[in-house]
Amino acid sequence: MNTLENTIHQLLESTVSSVGCDLWGIEYLNTGHGALLRVYIEKDDQVTLNDCQAVSQQVSALLDVEDPIVENYTLEVSSPGSDRILFTLDQLRDYIGQTVRVAMKQLSQGKRNYTGALKAVEDDGITLVFQEQQLFLNLDQIAKVRLVPVS
Predict the structure, then answer these.
(1) Listing from the earlier edge strand, what are the strands of the sheet with 22-30?
(2) Does residue 83 lie within any of the structural domains?
(3) Within this chain, do residues 74 and 93 fall inside the same structural domain, yes or no?
(4) Rounded to two decimals, what is the model's pTM?
(5) How far apart, in whole angstroms, are the C-alpha atoms of residue 94 and residue 56?
(6) Is residue 135 predicted with pLDDT exceeding 90?
(7) What's the total number of domains in the chain?
């Protein structure tokens, strides 16, 4: 997460909890046609449309008051889904053994994207089983890790 995403995450965590959900992660994208703030929420049972609406109302009001984003943006609130982005080391550890898709910030060993079984999670990186070989990827070089749903 970048600095703005960290700031927004800290700002919203207790507000999302007060609605009965957990804050799974924040994604802030500046698309060139305006910005997009995605807030992913999770709870023990399934996230409903009512949960998303309640969180959206509370988060929108808080962001209007705190105003951490200077440009115009669109707010989206949703469940992380089955192909969820894994934002934290704890989230990554919860999915050890499962297949993930890793997007790198730049080419790494000649590739930008890797799909394989998540073997291990360290403080500085992850080990992926990719094409029958173990591959260590540094966290600071990873743009995004997404779970590949089992079909």
Answers:
(1) 22-30, 35-42, 73-78
(2) no
(3) no
(4) 0.90
(5) 27
(6) yes
(7) 2
